[in-house]
Write a structure and sequence with these properties.
about 350 residues; alpha/beta; six-stranded parallel sheet; about 30% helix
Length: about 350
């Protein structure tokens, strides 16, 4: 039985990489042609467990490639449209937070025969948004989490980072949530700039290194900042980060999991990195100076799995707090996630079951 996995973004490489050979499946990947933006971490598909890969240059090519492969099942990392008589499986590329349900139902989620995601939150939302039977939803099935099961996977690049960018007493990874004029971004856009600038000051003082991975490309970030009066005041200081020896910007499409050798994970707004930090038992700091105190999409704050910063002046103190491993483990368990490196296998087995279900 043939399944074709389709990714429409280079950032979704992490979703497909963990899949390995399965005795009942003929597996093929359709994904964007790699664009090497850095020689620091691998950005091609050599690490993928499946090496039958058809690369495209433009998403308009996806339909014809899929048609030529004649799949029985299509596994998609997004809700983009593919016309086919094959059964369809949605394979999540990140986590959905509790706050999304408040936006109502979405037709974009309909049309899949199986939905694979991380947690009970995902199951609750998809049942509601797609108006489907919850039996069609598989949780504990976010394959990218499998990459974190073996710490060597991400720690391998720590020495390379230090040799390239210099030693540091701490290495911090900032997963920036910005920059869109949209309901789920509006309370967090300014925090991205404030946090990045403050982290550089702290790093300069303490000989830290800060890696910054933003949601948007540089041009989009600056275009957004210029158009927003409340944020334009940060432009000068933000631009200066580019020349700071304490800051390393990670390309938006780069393979973020290879950078998880960081000592501390920092976020603002909402990020799957909250749960990933807990899986790795890394200290987790979340900057939320403008959002409602009740805003907590993954329960990271209310469970004590993360340190919350409500005033940017308290960020340095927060960076010195250790991981609350007990609370992190409780959070992971409460979400219905098992850190066993087998999410991809659960999906594969369920796909085989789906195929035999007429």
């Amino acid at each position: 039985m043939r399944i074709v996995y389709v990714a429409n973004s280079l950032a979704h490489k992490r979703v497909l990489e963990p899949f390995k050979k399965h005795q009942d499946l003929d597996q093929i990947i359709v994904a964007p042609r790699p664009q090497i933006t850095s020689n620091f971490v691998p950005e091609d598909y050599k690490d993928c467990g499946i090496q039958n890969i058809h690369a495209f240059n433009n998403i308009s090519e996806i339909q014809s490639i899929v048609d030529s492969l004649n799949p029985h099942i299509i596994g998609q990392t997004g809700t983009f449209g593919i016309t086919s008589k094959a059964k369809k499986v949605y394979i999540g590329h990140g986590m959905i937070g509790r706050h999304v349900k408040s936006r109502g139902k979405s037709k974009g989620w309909r049309g899949f025969d199986l939905y694979c995601g991380a947690s009970y939150i995902f199951k609750d939302y998809i049942t509601y948004a797609a108006d489907i039977n919850p039996d069609k939803i598989l949780i504990n099935a976010l394959p990218q989490f499998d990459l974190l099961y073996n710490p060597d996977y991400y720690n391998l690049y720590r020495k390379k980072f230090i040799s390239s960018f210099g030693d540091a007493s701490k290495i911090i990874l900032f997963l920036g949530f910005c920059c869109k004029d949209r309901w789920d971004f509006n309370d967090h856009n300014e925090d991205y700039f404030k946090t990045a600038i403050e982290l550089e000051k702290i790093a300069r003082k303490n000989n830290y290194k800060v890696m910054i991975k933003a949601r948007q490309q540089e041009g989009e970030i600056m275009g957004f900042a210029i158009k927003n009066n409340s944020i334009s005041k940060y432009i000068k200081d933000y631009r200066q980060l580019k020349s700071s020896p304490y800051i390393h910007f990670i390309n938006t499409n780069s393979h973020i999991y290879r950078y998880y050798f960081a000592d501390i994970i920092v976020g603002n707004g909402c990020t799957t990195g909250e749960v990933e930090a807990c899986l790795m038992h890394k200290p987790l700091v979340l900057v939320r100076t403008k959002s409602d105190p009740k805003y907590d999409p993954f329960d990271s704050a209310t469970t004590g799995a993360a340190t919350i910063v409500r005033n940017i002046n308290n960020l340095e103190d927060a960076l010195n707090k250790p991981a609350n491993i007990e609370q992190q483990d409780k959070l992971i368990q409460s979400l219905g996630i098992t850190n066993d490196g087998q999410a991809h296998r659960r999906i594969q087995d369920k796909v085989v079951e789906l195929w035999h279900t007429k």
